[in-house]
Amino acid sequence: MPKYKFAFYIACIFLFSFTRASAQEQLTLEQALEIVLKNNYSVQIAGNRAQIADNNASAGNAGMLPRFSLGASANLASNDTKQKFSNGTDVDKAGAASTNITAGLNFSWTLFDGMKMFAAYDKLQALSEAEKLNLKMQIENTAAQVITSYYALVKQKQLIIAAENGLQLYEERAKIAEKKQEVGTGAKSDYLQAQVDKNEQLSNYLTLKNAMAQLKANFNTLLSRSTETDFIVNDSIPLNYSPAYEDLKNTVQKNNNRLLFGQKNIQISKLAIKESSSSYFPTLTLNSNYNYGRSQNQVGFILLNQNLGFTAGLTAAWALFDGFNTDRQSENSRIDLLNSQLALEETRLGVETSLLTAYTNFKNAIELLNLEEDNLNLAEENVLMAMERFRLGNFTTIQLKTAQQSLDNARTRLVNARFAAKSQEIELRRLSGDLVK
User: Fold this and answer.
1) What tens digit of pLDDT does each residue of 257-288 get?
2) What is the mean pLDDT of residues 102-117?
3) What is the pLDDT of residues 171-227, one digit of tens each?
4) pLDDT band at 78 (very low <50, low <70, confident <90, very high)
5) What's the per-residue H, E or C state across the chain?
6) Structure-model confidence comparison of residues 244 and 10, the more confident one
7) Domains with residue ranges and CATH for the chain
């Protein structure tokens, strides 16, 4: 590719990138989290379930409150009636009308049911808290995914910037090789190799740009918005997290939402045992009615009957035998409690393993990051020296190419090391319940 065409091509790429960036939306991590918590379908579903559980956690749903009901009825009848009485009276009436009107206010309140209502109320409260924990876990996992994906975009942006900087060095090398060829101090093969290496770097740059477009489309999908929405992300990946392992272990035991959710399930299982065991006890219910009744007939002994009054009473019931159903329910509740305890221990072991793995990976990533930062400084200095020696004719094309490749690799490794450290930081924060406040 002629040099002027290549330079024009590079200039067009940079100009196009700058023009698009100036028109794009600047999307911060905070804005992305706000969007996903508002639009993400899984978060919305978990929020609705938490709201339902909160609505169900009421004294009335647990059976602790009295029940009032109002009822009324009216009946009208017309019958052909024939009646013979023992005193010799006969009644023969066609279309004899009769009306019957009743209305009543009924009151019922379970005063004692073996403490079932109290266990049910506590269980409903615990279920509500469990759904809130489930919502927090959903938000936490979604936030971790968004944060990781966002910094993956930042990483890709840094790789693109590194490729752009590399292109400038390859362009400078090609110019030096061309000038040396023109004055007779360099071989044409050096110039051709410089052009080949420059084109290879340009190909890598375009591949990175294409991957960036795909990452953006995936990120928009995660935010539940149009995949065509264009935006730019921040330039840096901050790292200012340095926890101690013992502190993390203590924090995880107190704040890890998976562990808290498992503990809440144990509480729910214990309350279910109390609820099922209440069937061994009798129930006592207070009943009261205030009724009105009016019955009017055109034939019969009672032509009008009207009542208005109040009644009250207590009803006691005790199931002496129910086919061992209470025993079965109590036994199943105890087994469910055992399963909840086993599940918690399994979760605890998994969380502890994940914590140790994430912390080890984080410490190694930080050490590798420090190494790569030092190595990049060496690689940059080495390229500058190699470029100057190549200009003076003291370095071969192969030696300069090796130095450039070392710099390219150092830049890539540094970006990847920084992203790896950030990914492990996100995982540690998620495990310790520190990711979502």
Assistant:
1) 999 999 999 999 999 999 999 999 999 999 99
2) 93
3) 887 787 778 777 777 677 777 877 888 888 888 899 999 999 999 999 999 998 899
4) confident
5) CCHHHHHHHHHHHHHHHHHHHHHCEECCHHHHHHHHHHHCHHHHHHHHHHHHHHHHCCCCCCCCCCEEEEEEEEEEEEEEEEEECCCCCEEEEEEEEEEEEEEEEEEEEEEECCCHHHHHHHHHHHHHHHHHHHHHHHHHHHHHHHHHHHHHHHHHHHHHHHHHHHHHHHHHHHHHHHHHHHHCCCCHHHHHHHHHHHHHHHHHHHHHHHHHHHHHHHHHHHCCCCCCCCEECCCCCCCCCCCCHHHHHHHHHHHCHHHHHHHHHHHHHHHHHHHHHHHHCCEEEEEEEEEEEEEEECCCCCCEEEEEEEEEEEEEECCCCCCCHHHHHHHHHHHHHHHHHHHHHHHHHHHHHHHHHHHHHHHHHHHHHHHHHHHHHHHHHHHHHHHHHHHHCCCCHHHHHHHHHHHHHHHHHHHHHHHHHHHHHHHHHHHCCCCCC
6) 244
7) 3-39+114-282+324-431 (1.20.1600.10)
